[in-house]
């Protein structure tokens, strides 16, 4: 099941502690797994870099959908989204690099964004 078809209140509850954990560990991504079924899940990562957040979305063995990233951004309610793009992991693997959807988010009222 895709995240955009799930209950948004339940998603907010699952993601509620992620921003605090990311701010406690600046520069390091904090990950959580959201189960969408018994056999499937979505990995969500959040990193605070001092200026804003970087949100990662990864669906192992599947395709990441833009609608899922938008639902996650609404549930996190971090601020203004500057960009959503597709990215690949750096480590080569025999079946191909890991793929992510990545969003750059600036908290409302923050200045000095690089």
Tell me about this structure.
The chain is of the alpha+beta class and 114 residues long. The protein is 23% helix and 32% strand. Strands 1-2-3-5-4 form a 5-stranded antiparallel β-sheet, with helices on one face. β1 and β2 form a beta hairpin. α1 (8-15) crosses α3 (66-76). The longest helix is centred in the middle third of the chain and has 11 residues, at 66-76. The mean pLDDT is 88.
List the SSEs and their pairings.
Layout: H1 8-15, H2 18-24, E1 30-35, E2 41-48, E3 53-58, H3 66-76, E4 80-88, E5 99-106
Antiparallel strand pairs: 1-2, 2-3, 3-5, 4-5
Largest sheet: 5 strands, antiparallel
- What is the averaged pLDDT score? 88
Which consecutive residue ranges, at least 5 long each, have pLDDT under 50? none
Q: Class by helix and strand content?
A: alpha+beta
Strand order of the largest sheet: 1-2-3-5-4
In terms of DSSP E residues, the strand content is 25-35%
State the share of residues found in helices, binned by percent: 10-25%
Q: Write down the overall geometry.
A: globular
> Gyration radius, to the nearest Å?
14 Å
The first-to-last residue Cα distance is 36 Å
SS elements, strand count = 5
Instruction: Please work out how many helical segments DSSP would assign.
Output: 3
One letter per element, helices H and strands E, the order comes to HHEEEHEE
């Amino acid at each position: 099941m895709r995240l955009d078809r799930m209950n948004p209140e339940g998603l907010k509850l699952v993601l509620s502690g992620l921003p605090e954990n990311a701010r406690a560990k600046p520069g390091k991504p904090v990950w959580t797994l959201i189960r969408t079924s018994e056999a499937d899940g979505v990995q969500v990562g959040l990193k605070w870099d001092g200026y804003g957040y970087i949100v990662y979305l990864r669906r192992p063995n599947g395709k990441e959908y833009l609608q899922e990233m938008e639902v996650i951004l609404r549930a996190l309610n971090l601020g203004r989204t500057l960009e959503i793009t597709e990215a690949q992991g750096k480590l080569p693997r025999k079946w191909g690099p890991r793929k992510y959807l990545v969003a750059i988010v600036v908290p409302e009222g923050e200045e000095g964004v690089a």
